[in-house]
What we know:
This protein starts with a helix and ends with a helix. The chain is elongated, with a radius of gyration of 31 Å. By secondary structure, it is an all-alpha fold. The protein contains 14 helices and no strands. Helix 4 packs antiparallel against helix 5 (about 135-145).
Amino acid sequence: MPTTYFKTSRRLFRIGLAVALLSVALPNHAIANNAPKTPPAKQTKVPFWTSDAGAHTVPATDASILSSPSLSKEDRALVRWCLARYGLPGVYADQEVVERAAERAAKRFFDRMPSAEIARRLTPIRKALYRGTRAYTSVSFVLAYYGIDFEKNALRVVESLSLMILDKPSKLKLAGLASLGQDSGGAEGVPAAVTKLYARNQSASLLRAYLHSPADGTLMEDKCWTLGGFFLKYPAQVLQAAATPRDMESLAFYAYEVSDDHRRRRGRKVWRILDKLEGDNDAIIVRLAKRFRKVYAREVAEH
């Protein structure tokens, strides 16, 4: 058989094979191109201020993380997320923008994290940190905010006031806490933290702890506006928590200061609240409201 015949046959075979392969590959290629693509997992950008080197760029996160034993790099970053979420009042105007941005970023960070994971990761860190440091207070706040052992962690936040003013732990004295910078114990952040926590859980224990906490100067002013504001917003819950004569006297002072009742045109906020409470179906609320009316009347008379 001539050589030309074999060459022609091989050429035709190769052409046929190529056509067959293309007939299979082209539809598959079209399907692959038209098929919905799974978007790649979105990577969360880690802010520079969560690192040891970058903490100073956001005042709230620039705090010495006193702990025993020492924390890992990952745990230190997590504490800085908590510090940013807790915030730092009283910063300069040019720092406020980065403060607020970091706080919003921290809220998004923890909102995306399951509460079980927050508990698993933060509870051991809270136990390792020294009581009385802003790091400890901020971690306790985040735990309480997400409902993890709420009562105990919320009270740990309020405790920072007494640890700063009355009973500083010896470990903090030895560590030189006073030299660590602004709000090193987290006390200045307590009013805002308590406001956020009480909005989520009208805990009688939390309110009483804050009502009984020591405060002076600006902290006392913040306490006044916070507790007085609670009465205006949650009067029934607040009266039940502050039912003792001493607590009612303190509450009457705070409520008067924030209610504008000393102004004739804008006054009578508290009186209107008490009128409503005295018409409540709950006999306990009615009794407390009538008792508080007498206490508040004395407060008004003194002014």
